[in-house]
């Protein structure tokens, strides 16, 4: 077979900050028995002691040490970046079909940035070569460096604010509500009474929603719903989570002594969308967690869930056109509300437990991974 090489270069100078416009993705397909025009020369220094720093959800900085010998011949760096699978498959890929990012040799550390090849909260392996471009356009390269591993970060407040702004566009008009509610099976409520002293306990949020959400697998809370039916103003009688429902007056959970945060915006390959909000008592551990990671909403004025006072009475409204999932971060005693069986159906197809976000939806995705 004949060796094949496809190379695409884009250059905008030699600044160490590289983005999608000045990175080039190079796919080099090499056959072991044929010379593809890329020769390995030990004279070029091999990168070692690789360091990854300043990691975000779609970028990182990389630097390394190398011997000074032939350093002045280096014109480019090849960076082989792969989602982590297993070490054997990575070694095979480095040897036979490497996918490389190519950059001009610039002062280190350099920034690698690109949402098209970096996803949030994802483990990667990386290895580096130094290269010298020849007059005929081919390269001589060093040996590969050691392979190191790192994990990209969660969405920052900046990214979550972008999601928030997208969610605001489709939130729709506000409808009144009076209660928060939580559906489960009868055994669940029996267990709460017998094993937890009648108090609902916070648990770690699952991995549903955006892959980069900083609350998934980290924030502890209790899920509640608050959406009402348009024609009745009351909670729907159907539920995907169980035939028994705990209802609690809205003011018991959402009041001037709590803070409200935006947590996520997603869909599951469906026309309707979900917004996750977090209610945390002021000064609680959940409140401190959210302050560092989530955009805070004005409880009296926002597009999703509001709490205002009218004639000395607390009045609550929720967005009509999104399904709200509300996480309350403290324990809740069942004696504060009522538990009763619903008359509707259990619609399992609407469950969001560990649901994966649709990465192709233009309504609820931002350009920093999914």
Automatic annotation (TrEMBL):
Record protein name field: Phytanoyl-CoA 2-hydroxylase interacting protein like
GO cellular component: cytoplasm
Family, similarity comment: Belongs to the PHYHIP family.
Record-linked CDD domains: FN3
Organism: Pelusios castaneus
Biological function: May play a role in the development of the central system.
Listed Pfam families: fn3 (PF00041), PHYHIP_C (PF19281)
InterPro entries xrefs: FN3_dom, FN3_sf, Ig-like_fold, PHYHIP/PHYHIPL, PHYIP/PHIPL_C
Annotated Fibronectin type-III domain residues: 46-155
């Amino acid at each position: 077979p004949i060796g094949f090489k496809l190379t695409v270069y884009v250059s905008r100078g030699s600044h160490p900050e590289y983005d999608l416009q000045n990175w080039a993705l190079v796919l080099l397909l090499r056959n072991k028995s044929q010379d593809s025009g890329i020769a390995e020369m030990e004279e070029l220094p091999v990168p070692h002691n690789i360091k990854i720093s300043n990691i975000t959800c779609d970028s990182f900085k990389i630097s390394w040490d190398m011997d000074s010998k032939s350093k002045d011949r280096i014109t480019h760096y090849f960076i082989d970046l792969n989602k982590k699978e297993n070490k054997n498959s990575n070694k095979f890929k480095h040897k036979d079909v490497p996918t490389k990012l190519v950059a001009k040799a610039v002062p280190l550390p350099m920034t690698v940035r690109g949402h098209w090849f970096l996803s949030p909260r994802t483990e990667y392996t990386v290895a580096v070569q130094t290269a010298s471009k020849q007059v005929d356009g081919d390269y001589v390269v060093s040996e590969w460096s050691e392979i190191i591993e790192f994990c990209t970060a969660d969405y920052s407040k900046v990214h979550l604010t972008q999601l928030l702004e997208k969610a605001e566009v489709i939130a729709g008009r506000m409808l009144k509500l009076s209660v928060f509610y939580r559906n489960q099976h009868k055994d669940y409520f029996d267990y709460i009474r017998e094993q937890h002293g009648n108090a609902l306990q916070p648990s770690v949020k699952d991995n549903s929603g955006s892959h980069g959400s900083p609350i998934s697998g980290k924030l502890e809370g209790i899920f509640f719903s608050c959406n009402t039916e348009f024609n009745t103003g009351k909670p729907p009688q159907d539920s995907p989570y169980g035939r028994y429902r705990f209802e609690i007056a809205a003011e018991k959970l959402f009041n001037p002594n709590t803070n409200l945060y935006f947590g996520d915006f997603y869909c599951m390959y469906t026309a309707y969308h979900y917004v996750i909000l977090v209610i945390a008592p002021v000064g609680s551990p959940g409140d401190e967690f959210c302050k560092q990671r989530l955009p805070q909403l004005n409880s009296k004025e926002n597009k999703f869930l509001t709490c205002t006072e009218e004639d000395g009475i607390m009045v609550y409204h929720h967005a009509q056109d999104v399904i709200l999932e509300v996480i309350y971060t403290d324990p809740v005693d069942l004696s504060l509300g009522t538990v009763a069986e619903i008359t509707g159906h259990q619609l399992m197809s609407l469950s969001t437990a560990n649901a994966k976000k649709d990465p192709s939806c233009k309504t609820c995705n931002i350009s920093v991974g999914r």
